[in-house]
Amino acid sequence: MTHRQTFVDIRLSHLLRDCSVGAIVRHDDALMVVQDTRHWDGPRTSPYDREIRYVELVKRALGLGDMKLCRPPVKEQQGDWIHWVRARRFPGWTRCGRCDLLHHAPWERRDGTDPKGDVNEHGRKTTDSTRVLRCRQIDGADGKRSTCHGILEQVPWVLVHEGGYLADVPWHQIAHANARHPRSAGCGSDRKAAYLKILSRHGRWVVRCLRCLADTRLPDRFPYGAHTRQQPWVPEPPPEPPSQPGLLIRVNDVRVHFPECRTALVIPPESRIRRGSVVDRLHSSSADQDRIRTARNNYARQARYRELASKYRSSPEEVKEAFEKIERGEIARELPQGDLEPLEYGALTQEIPDLRPDEDFVTEHHTEAWRHLDGTLTGLAAGVAGAVERVVAVHRLKEIMVFQGFRRGGAGDALRRPATPPDIVGESDWLPALELWGEGLFLALKEEEVARWESQQSLRVRAEAAAKRAEAVHLPRLIGNAISPRLLLCHTLAHLIIRRLEAEAGYPAASLKERIYCADSTDGDEAMAGILVYVAVADTHGSLGGLMDMARPDRFLRLLTGAVEDASWCSFDPVCREQEGHGPDLLNRAACHACALVPEPSCICGNRLLDRAFVAGDDDGLRSLWELAAPSPGK
């Protein structure tokens, strides 16, 4: 193990998101950058051994074509932690906390990096991976020799470009960017020597050269040189040197890395393929299939059937039937066509016959019991009961999370460019993906009530203002939905339900996620207005039953009524309610941390497009869906 390249401990649930390829993570008190998927596998492993099967619908919906989806490699696993993904120490420059000198990669030079030996600040012996790096003996600017034993820490700045590039800050070039003294002309870069300092002057950082005394304030942008690395672990420069300067930002800035990670549910018919069956085992083994295909005659083929029957502990007839089914392509032929979101919505709203508990998508409909709630309901409860069409408990679901690449820089600028692929070069035929297991609850609103509610003029004006702001930051491209009143209603309501579930079901909000199904009936599309709140983890034992119990009509009525009541007030009102725009990109109105925001991993929009007025109405004549859906007096 070296300080430049090592394995890092990362949770599987984080590996394809905040800690994915190109992300900067902390490991053993050092900052590391996760290397691309070309470095993930060892010499005796292959990603194809970890392929996730029966996800053709998911790949079709995400536009992945013939790309394979493969699980990340696992060298050692303890719970949700994995120990295999390679990372490289980055940034490569360190700064002395005592004398402010910059040192380049001191972990590569054992001589002089720690004059006191391999001991920590308490004088105890340390391992190679955790030893403290100290400032070595240096030559002072006045020619006198001085010794500094200050602890070296990695600098917190990096150079980022919207093209997806990441590199160390060119400290020498910055220090001499505005140098005018003749002595500076012959001052060349030398990474083996410590002659640069980072100083704080009048609230601004300044880079100074001790050789020629040139100094420059740390700029916000700096040219991304033609010889600068494409990525810290990729020695080659970018294929096309960027003409625009890069951003000089801190490592914890959100612009350093944001992953492009998409998810989809596995639904029938693929969710109904039984794991461990003869079809499943034969479909997963191309070698066994080839043994049958290469049989020279029918007699030899029958012998192969008997051999595999013994291997699979089945009958030769079952093996033959499974092989013929695979050869006819029946598994792929059964897949429905179209976008996955309407197909997911259809799977949630329609009862699936003959469900087995070991399938990957198991639902229980409570719609009939919901419709037969006590007719004595009044007030808000009556309006809630009148606005909800379906209530479904999802006993078991499987979510596929696919990492498609990452972006750097400002979101608006970065979206103009394609995402950097997981292998950097874009030549791989597979993408890293995870299977997440869990449970959830689903509700669908009555289309006729939603359409009547959407007809309010003030509602459409309020939604159009949000849509214009969202378009300016390319948000519809990120979430894949048009900004409409029903989207703002469903999204805000989902957040209120998640917050309510913390108290009602005992799930922390950070463990819950949302899926929003919204579409109107224009252009012949099926109208949708549904919310799925669920939990999904990288563990087959991810279902605890709490969410399913909340789908019982009596409990669900209490849950949803409480969520709608929560929308009517906020401890920061009237400030929160009267805001014209706040939060990320000013895309929220009546929503803040005290009322509607949830932990960011739970939200499909990054805590944007939230407005309690779409759930509770307002004092300017905007009526809520529940008010319109409540039965008239006397009915």
Number of helices: 22
Mean pLDDT: 83
Query: Which band does the percent of strand residues land in?
Result: 15-25%
N/C terminus separation: 76 Å
Strand segment count: 24
Question: What form results from the Cα inertia axes?
Answer: flat
Low-confidence stretches: 111-129
Helix/strand/pairing category: alpha+beta
Task: Tell me about the largest β-sheet.
Answer: 7 strands, mixed
The percentage helix is: 25-40%
Radius of gyration: 29 Å
Structure report:
The chain is of the alpha+beta class and 635 residues long. Residues 111-129 have low confidence and may be disordered. The chain contains 22 helices and 24 strands. A hairpin with a 2-residue loop joins strand 5 and strand 6. Helix content is 27%, strand content 22%. The protein starts with a strand and ends in a 6-residue tail after the last helix.
Task: Give descriptors for this structure.
about 625 residues; alpha+beta; seven-stranded mixed beta sheet; five-stranded antiparallel beta sheet; 22 helices; about 25% helix
Short description:
The chain has 22 helices and 24 strands. With 635 residues, the chain is of the alpha+beta class.
Which helices and strands, and how do they pair?
Blueprint: E1 5-11, H1 12-15, E2 24-27, E3 30-34, H2 56-61, E4 68-70, E5 77-78, E6 81-89, E7 93-96, E8 102-104, E9 138-139, E10 145-146, E11 152-154, E12 157-160, E13 166-167, H3 171-175, H4 182-185, E14 196-201, E15 204-209, E16 215-217, E17 221-222, E18 246-250, E19 258-265, H5 278-283, H6 286-293, H7 298-312, H8 316-327, H9 330-333, H10 340-349, E20 362-365, H11 367-371, H12 379-387, E21 388-407, H13 411-414, E22 430-445, H14 447-454, H15 457-472, H16 475-479, H17 485-504, E23 513-519, E24 528-537, H18 546-549, H19 553-567, H20 575-578, H21 613-616, H22 625-629
Parallel strand pairs: 4-22
Antiparallel strand pairs: 1-6, 2-3, 3-6, 5-6, 7-8, 7-11, 9-10, 12-13, 12-18, 14-15, 15-16, 17-18, 19-21, 20-21, 21-22, 22-24, 23-24
Helix pairs in contact: 6-7, 7-8, 12-19, 17-19
